[in-house]
Amino acid sequence: MANFSKSNVPQFSVDVYQNEYLPDGGREVNAIVTVTATGGGTIGSAVGAPHLYSPGQGPSAAVAVMVDCSGSMDYPPTKMRNARDATSAAIDTLRDGVHFAVVGGTHVAKEVYPGGGRLAVADAGTREQAKRALRGLSAGGGTAIGTWLRLADRLLSTADVAIRHGILLTDGRNEHESPEDLRAALDTCAGRFTCDARGVGTDWEVKEVTGIASALLGTADIVADPAGLAADFTRVMETAMGKEVADVALRLWTPVGTTVKFVKQVAPTVEELTGRRTEAGPRAGDYPTGSWGDESRDYHVCVEVPAAGLGQEMLAARVSLVVPEPGGEAPGGGGGARSLGAQGLVRAVWTDDMAASTSINPQVAHYTGQAELAQAIQQGLDLRKAGDIDGATAKLGRAVQLAGASGNADTAKLLAKVVDVVDAAAGTVRLKAKVEEADEMTLETRSTKTVRVKKH
Fold first, then answer.
1. Number of other CB atoms surrounding residue 15 within 10 Å
2. Closest to 210 in 3D by CA, of 170, 164, 257, 157
3. Cα–Cα distance, 47 to 249 (Å, whole number)
4. Which of these, 118, 220, 277, 369, has the minimum number of CB atoms within 10 Å of its CB?
């Protein structure tokens, strides 16, 4: 294995924020784990894969763009044109040397470019050919997103690359396959590629689109006005091109007698990871985090430790980051994993100092509130759709209160389009009699976006 200078390898760091003090008999330990990656010019030694690149080029990557071509994309006709233009803009954003394909999605999936069950390699010529192929796209047929994902997976798997990524655009509900078929496709694709999902217009199902992004560790968003698609696709592709390390897993080791209550990502969005654990040896488990570029994310780890006497202390958990060994599967999948070197320790110390044991760490308090905010919005909107006005008012009022207290101004603005705020601090609101569908869908789609702890 060649040696690479440290400046060329993405460096990961782990910081732990917690109040380690527990009262006599206390057992629950909470910590916020901040993981930060600062990138470089190769992933060679960090990931253990032989994919090298020159500074400025980025790692070897493959991207599949899945474009909804169902009949509803013709209403209005500008929607299909905007989708073609957006895909063209995304193709223009591809780095030279990146493998790519375009998939047209209806009740079946078809290869739009390059065809033949393969990927093209981006350069001036192939980008132009792909854009020519896009001009022939027309709308007609149904929607079966699982078939699109399976075709994207088959195409992406043909490339020996470090990063595999999908971008999926839909404007309608997944009406031509069962929810079970979509779930099976997502289960097949999970861990094989990441995927950003976008809903255009207002005729799609928020939980479907956010569910796709969640399962494939990507982002979800609404583009209510199709005219905004090109700018959004360009941003999404630029972010994908900035990814440097794939298949990073958060590895949590806990001592005998300790139970993991939950692990969730809490910034930049709330994402439940507890049920995605794969065992990684005695008392250790891996939680998938997907691909990383230059970025920082926060995770909330909660463990239950055995009770201990006053004055005692213990290591409650050790957090580290791992990636697959060369030729191995994703971490936890049975193949070997390699440590990225960074780790953080979660501690428990029993004390009779009431002030120490009852204070809540500001990071933990903040993100507990952000997770509650996301849940309150989702429950409130579900109750509103079900006609439970009192229940919806109570939940959305609590959401307004939490958004204001935590400084989540973006979410507060979205809430103000669905409720009339009487007293934000008290959470007193009235449901608006008439709400634009796009405003409600935007609030639901972006409900899991969080803000980080304000620095004082």
1. 14
2. 170
3. 12
4. 118
Among 6, 132, 180, 156, which residue's Cα sits nearest to residue 66? Answer: 156
For residues 120 and 101, the answer to whether their CB atoms sit within 8 Å is yes
Tokens of 361: 């760490």
pLDDT at 236: 96
CA distance 194 to 292: 11
Average pLDDT of the residues in 359-383: 96
pLDDT at 438: 96
- Which strand (E) or helix (H) includes residue 16? strand 11-17
Distance of CA 131 to the CA centre of its chain: 29
Q: Which residues contact 2 (CB under 8 A, 6 or more apart)?
A: 44, 45
140 in Cβ contact with 106 (< 8 Å): yes
Assess contact for 337 and 48: CB atoms under 8 A.
no
At residue 174, what is the residue type? N
Contact yes or no for 266/32 (Cβ under 8 A)? yes
Record the pTM. 0.91
User: Residue 303 belongs to what H/E stretch?
Assistant: strand 295-304
- Amino acid identity of residue 257, one-letter, is G
Q: Return left, alpha or beta for 22; rule: phi > 0 is left, psi -120 to 50 is alpha, else beta.
A: beta
Please give the average per-residue pLDDT across 52-64, as a whole number: 67
The closest alpha carbon to 441, from 221, 167, 214, belongs to 221
259-287 tens-digit pLDDT: 999 999 999 999 999 999 999 989 999 99
Q: Taking a C-beta distance cutoff of 8 angstroms, is the pair 105, 70 a contact?
A: yes
Say what the pLDDT of residue 331 is: 65
The answer to whether the CB of 314 falls within 8 A of the CB of 308 is yes
Residues for the chain: how many in total?
Answer: 456
50 has a pLDDT exceeding 60: no
> Residue 202 half-sphere exposure, CB side, CA atoms within 13 Å?
12
Residue the block writes with tokens 């093209």: 120
Average pLDDT of the residues in 36-45: 58
434: Cβ–Cβ under 8 A, 6 or more apart, which residues? none
CA distances from 365 to 28, 195, 348, 451 (A): 14, 31, 18, 13
DSSP state of 130: H
